[in-house]
């Protein structure tokens, strides 16, 4: 058994898997679009921090600093002498208490902060929240077609969609991940009602050169995730993957050790793939494992043997076993019963989380 057991949700058939996956995607979407980011927290605390600093800097009204460390400054005029925090007349008798300048300073700090709030500053510019998702191709696209397009709570206009991998073929080919997703999902979205997602795909003009295509797509990721100098790895809100009968995920194949061990690049070229189109690009294991959530979607009896190896023999080092370990605690599997036949693993009942309730048979 794998040392880090992922959540495995089992379903009767393909349609049930599609419904649950769609619910999980919407749950991840809602979390990404509503969670308060660090800049918001800094902005909301700016005024309070300024006031607290002003209060901390002011001595207490009832405390007179020691003359040994804080020399007493005398200010004389015709009628009285002002001594630190007390007002004394010329006879030395205490006069009326001095006005509380701590409160005055607090009010001034409030006014300054209100003035700052009315000016444009980096703290006041709240970056639009976006849902960043990575998709692989194959049967996963059909799952999303079946599940997501039926829902009315998908905020497509706030989605940034990237691809976990791409087969380097023309977009009109049936083997193109982007082409399939475009036909099955993007072209069918009611954009007037739900908005239009931002879709980031490879440059079709570069598909004859895997290395150049990979480098170019990495630049797209760097631009989308605030620049590589400020982030070591991109962080997707959700990374969706399938798993092929031979164990490959995205375009990371079991026997391609160089790509599996890549630790620095975000995107790698893949040449000589053992199945399907020969040339591809793929996001790397560190990028996948750095995501907030990773979900595998697997169905069909042909996947049962590889699932058995993944769940029961992690030492074999299949790509998805590596992800189960590397993203421990953030990995979920959505699997139909056919794919789990003869697999020794604890199955969980999926609990629907989004507001739109759907009954699974």
UniProtKB/TrEMBL annotation:
The keyword Transferase does not apply. CDD domains: 6PGL. GO terms for cellular component: cytoplasm. GO terms for molecular function: 6-phosphogluconolactonase activity. One of its GO terms (biological process) is carbohydrate metabolic process. Residues 127-333 form the Glucosamine/galactosamine-6-phosphate isomerase domain. It is found in: Cytoplasm. It comes from the Eukaryota. May be involved in regulation of tRNA subcellular distribution. This is Glucosamine/galactosamine-6-phosphate isomerase domain-containing protein. It comes from Tetrapisispora phaffii (strain ATCC 24235 / CBS 4417 / NBRC 1672 / NRRL Y-8282 / UCD 70-5) (Yeast).
